[in-house]
Amino acid sequence: MARDRNTGASHYPDGMTGYVMDPHGGPENGSVRAYLLHRAKPHIPPWLGWAATGLVGALGHWRWPDSAAAGVGLTLASVALTGVTWAAGKSTTKQRRLHSAVTVACGSAWVTAACLAGPTAGPVDDLYLMGGPAVALSWNVRVVLRNNIEGTAGGSSDGGLLEKVGLARAQIGAAKVEPNRVTAPLALEPGEQTNDDVAKALARIASALDLPKSAVRYSPDPDSERRGDLVIVPEDMLSEVVEWEGPSNLGGSIADPLNLGRYDDGADLLIWLPGDPDAGRNSTHLLIAGGTGSGKGDTALNVLTEILSRTDVVVWFSDPKAFQDFAPLRAGLDWGVEGGTPTEVMVAGVEAAIPARTRWLGAHGYRQWVPEAAQTQNDPAHSCRGDGRACGCEGMPFLVAWFEEAANTLRALGDDAFTGIAQEARSAGISLVVSLQRPSYDQMSTSTRASLPSVIALGCDPRDEGFSLPETVIDAGAHPGAWGNRRPGYCYVVSPGIDESRYPSPGRTRRFTIRAVPVMERLAAWAQANGAHADPVTAGAVSGVAGRAYTGRTTTDDNDEAQPAVALRAVREEDDEMEHGGLLVDPEDAYIDPEQELPGSEEGDDAPIFGQDTGRKPTPEEARRLFADALAEFEAEGRMVVGPRDFKDWCERHNLSRPWVSGQLKEAYLEGRLEPTNATGRWRIVPALTAA
Questions:
Q1: Mean pLDDT of all residues in 316-331
Q2: What is the pTM assigned to this prediction?
Q3: Which residue from 59, 140, 429, 544 has the highest number of Cβ atoms inside 10 Å of its Cβ?
Q4: What domains sit in the chain, N to C, each tagged with a CATH number?
């Protein structure tokens, strides 16, 4: 019941109004008679109808006494009026429909009899005096029951809301009231309404309650097509910005939930990456999708900082934007690369690690990765030995392969670049994280998208909602297109381990400001000292593909300042050379014997003649040797994916043609020195030791 500010009247669920009595003896607005009149108003119409029926019967007898034609006409009119009443009551409840039809049938039958025989003939007047008040009282009882019993005894108390939105025959059960959240079970009319009708009415429900569309959700019962829970969140608790102050579980396991923010009712926004056989939860891959300005960068930082704060996980990270947002965390990564060729190598490295890790997990009795797999294998139940004794093998940490701004990688490698990884990596204890603005099917293959079970969907164009969220979640009330870039950090999360009723509930991730930079740097240093390192199986598999391009996690020096191990060695060697004076000749001349005579002149050494090739061409044997040396130089530099365009300067320097290089690349492939890639004209270098 709501109070009217202007009239002092109180509005009841059925729309009637009444006056509140003054405790000192009179009503607040008017006299006792006015109060009684207002209370009697809902009960007067049935009695007015009874009186009007008697008047019509008397006038009809005066006009058509003993008329056979009038009897036929009145009978047909009575049947027609009863049928129209039954048809018009289709949108109401069964009880109201039947009550209305019976009332009309009785009234029209009495009018017919009164018109033909007279209102006082035989039992006609007795039926009027006894049956009429009974019918009127039945409607009065119905009004009383609707206002008092259903409104207070646990029945439907929607105050006409469902009728306004086109769900008049639906029934609302007892609501569960929580802080800033109301959950009401809803039962629809059998055979007439389905859960889809509720999904279509959510916008009208939000309008009737004067709430945003995202504040009203519907969670269908998976076992019924006509039952579900209507969830209403009256207050948006996400409007307040919460800054990131540090990870939620420093030193925990990656199997523990990652806390990314909160839902609109204040509950924590949690996701899980590894599976849990005890809880029946599968491992998952994660898609982070959102338009420009939607807060995708801050969301990714929330996820990455939570991952780096755990002790049994390593991260391989590709960022074509040169770590613009993630630079403070780069030292904590096991492998970080920028776009282009290094990312191609990382994709190949992940593909190579999958079978090696799967083989190790299977040999140690793990059907999927669990935290025990990251520990030294001292349990005989997880031994790779055939004699049943503990093997003592080094544990295998969980692996997260993250591809930031993945649209760049997909354009370079093809829309199915991640298909194999997405389909096979989960069983190997690997989670794939793909972040991009628009996961449309012209950028990412349908097979890859179908293999990404989890998604964090931030604000986007309304037309792109279907690319990020399942249709069932959108039907339940999730609409990231309503935010666009106006509410950074607002998101919907769909992931194993989250109650499905939470899928259409909006959440918001924490914001990263300039004040978060030193905290992130300290987290990266902590990860260097306390985080996991790649196990020998994973490191060996990726090194067999990436060669020196994969160096593993960086180390720390005495001052706890992160430095790559290779860079440290180079600095120390340079210091040694400076201390002893170093070489006094150019490195390329270091191995020339000063006592040896110079070689004689050869054809082509003279100045070039107009119209002829410049310089001396190497012999076929020399050219092949130079080509092999070039591959070795590329491998030493970590450039493990090459093509003819990478030899442009080399061809000019040695006076060789690009078609000749293309032929040598194919020949190197036949010799096992190169492997084809997904991209046309691109080859992956097989490390020299592996090829041997």
A1: 93
A2: 0.64
A3: 429
A4: 42-152 (no CATH), 161-232 (3.30.1360), 258-355+401-539 (3.40.50.300), 620-691 (1.10.10)
